[in-house]
Amino acid sequence: SLLFFSDISLNIMSLGGLALGVGMLDDCAVVVSENIFRHRSLGKGLKDAAYIGTKEVGPAVISTALTTIVVFLPVIYVRGVAGQLFKDTALTVTFALLASLLVSLTLIGTLQSRAFDFGVGSEGRWKWTWGLKKIWNPGAFRSPEGGGQPQPKKRIPGFLAVPGRAVRWVFYAVFKGVGFLLNFLVSFFVQLFAFIFHYLGMPFRPVLKAVFSAFNAGYGRFISWYRKSLTWSLDHKGRVMAWTLVFFAVTFALGGLVRRELMPRMETNTFELDLKMPVDFSFEQTTEMAIMLETHLRALTPVKTVLSQVGIVSGMESADPNISVNSARVFVEVGKPKQLEGVLDVMRARLAQFPDITYTIVREQSTVSQFLALSVAEVGLKVKGKDLDRLKEIAEDLVARLSTIPGVADLATNIGEGKPEFKVTVDKDAIKRYAGLTPSMIGDFLVSAVRGRVATQFREMEKKYNILVRLEDASRQNIEALLGETLPFEGKVVPLRDLVSYEIVRGPREIRRENQQREVLVTANLKGRKISQVTPAIDKAIATLRLPTDYRVVWSGEREEMSQSFRSLVLALLLATLLTYMIMAAQFESLVHPFIVMFTLPMGAAGAIVALLLTGQTLNVISIIGMVVLIGIVVDNATVKIDYTNQLRRGGMGLREAVEEGSHVRLRPILMSTGSTLVGLIPMAL
């Protein structure tokens, strides 16, 4: 319902938030349940154990839940890819954790305070009982100062008491029925599941008994080792701190080896080859070239499937100026993702034999990349300036410099030569002989002659059809015939050939503008390297360019988006840390104790860096979001432990004894909550 009122649909991001929160949802319930169980093992009654156990860890549970929630709040306001990607995820996890906190503080204690009297009788047969105590006790209302004795009833005339008694008995019957129904349903289903698992588990009891015995023995040895390690650490505080700082420093230094990119690259075994032949190629010539490449690809062992497409296939493609009879697409599928680079190298070598053919290699993109409309090229540079010819020269110079950088491949620009076109020039001296004649009039005449102009409409029933007036096909399809037409002007006819001249030119394929400034886009793919590895070399190549005044080269594509997202995520990281500190300061009523908990953050970051290095992963938006979430997770264990230690200290226990006792008592819930979080996150990593 919270997702509905927040206008969040069930999509990849929101479902991903639920998957992310699966391991964290039961953390609060685990801590509360374990503490109630501990008080039960100390001999307390059901209600006392539920009340004291919940009350004892309630503040710590609230604090841990809030520290996990607040780290998602800055993510909602992050700009760039991270903000678009994780807003739904952050809100979904927040709502789920709030519901989990509410259940752990209310329902968990309530259920554990009830007696479930199910089990096996002395005869070895299943004993079926009602189980739950009565939920509703319809006893008379008693006075708090009356020693539990019923209040004396005032006598009311019978005819006046009938409506009141009727209403009272209606409420009594409703509450009695609801209470009985709830009591019956809960007791029935609890005993039903206990009955089923009792008999289904009988064949596995020897195995389970052996497993549980081995686990208990291992856990006992772990507890013994933990006690000794804790005692040794408390006896050698300086040495432990020194080794911790050394580990953090070494890990921080190794962090520079972690490669960076915007989004993690998915392993794919397919790619698309977009080919652009010279503009004078016919459909047959383009088809021959596509067949030649297709035959060459089929001869390669790793290639499984090859599909070619020449020219315009669907009606939607007719609106794309880059698709025509001289364009082709080749779709290739290889056997394994690791074989893809080898096939691409072979294709690049083959296409290098045809310098007139331009091509673009498009790898299969992940759903997230398609959702964010990320560029298909891994490197993008924008050359900005005024004159298009000068921009073209700078772009060609930049392409030549980038081609010498190892790992940079498939260099291309968006200013390739377009189709042949007629450039019509108005003779200004000629139109001066005709007072009032302007170049715009000549342009309007040419447009009307070639494209046509709506003269009137033909109506049939309720439909209207435009009637277009233009020159006949013979005059429109031949430039000489078109210039042989006459232009009517002030009752005269002026030969069009006397006013204009023409030449055949090749215009640019496209003209890009950003903020009303012309730009040329230079793109490239990476071969065996990450964007962070080639960035210094590309920056150096840009610095060697001799750019005129008002001309500049800026990053585009993945690097531009990565810089914006990383800056926003760093601010989110700092804000999440500050909010976490504020919550813990309010919880501990101290400005010092939160720093003890915050000391776990550098260790958590160090562990994340080591994990990225060991698994070969990169530092990207996903991993940084994981580190932001880690802020709220790693402090939970320390918060639960320090909160109980402070309770022991307030009870008069010494500092060291309180630390040892608090660490021992809170070890089990910490292991349980951490284990559940890990188990919940492991499927997402597979």
Topology:
Elements: H1 2-5, H2 12-25, H3 27-41, H4 46-70, H5 73-76, H6 80-112, E1 119-120, E2 126-127, H7 158-200, H8 205-235, H9 237-254, E3 270-276, H10 283-298, E4 303-310, E5 327-334, H11 340-351, E6 358-363, H12 367-371, E7 379-385, H13 388-402, E8 408-413, E9 417-426, H14 428-431, H15 439-450, E10 453-460, E11 463-469, H16 473-476, H17 479-483, E12 486-489, E13 492-495, E14 500-508, E15 512-514, E16 517-526, H18 531-543, E17 552-556, H19 557-588, H20 593-598, H21 600-615, H22 621-650, H23 655-665, H24 667-685
Antiparallel strand pairs: 1-2, 3-5, 3-6, 4-5, 7-16, 7-17, 8-16, 9-14, 10-11, 12-13, 15-16
Helix pairs in contact: 2-6, 2-24, 3-4, 3-6, 3-24, 4-6, 4-19, 4-22, 6-19, 9-21, 19-22, 21-22, 22-23
The DSSP helix count reads 24
User: According to CATH, what is the class of the domain at 270-389 and 400-413 and 530-560?
Assistant: Alpha Beta
Structural class: alpha+beta
The global form is elongated
Q: First CA to last CA: what distance?
A: 31 Å
Give the overall pLDDT as a whole number. Answer: 78
The total beta strand count reads 17
Low-confidence runs (pLDDT<50, min 5 residues)?
A: 116-151, 370-374
Helical coverage, percent range? 55-70%
Rounded Rg: 38 Å
Most strands sheet: 5 strands, antiparallel
At the third CATH level, what is the topology name of the domain at 270-389 and 400-413 and 530-560?
A: Alpha-Beta Plaits
CATH superfamily grouping of the domain at 270-389 and 400-413 and 530-560:
Multidrug efflux transporter AcrB pore domain
Gross CATH architecture of the domain at 270-389 and 400-413 and 530-560: 2-Layer Sandwich
What portion of residues belong to β-strands? 15-25%
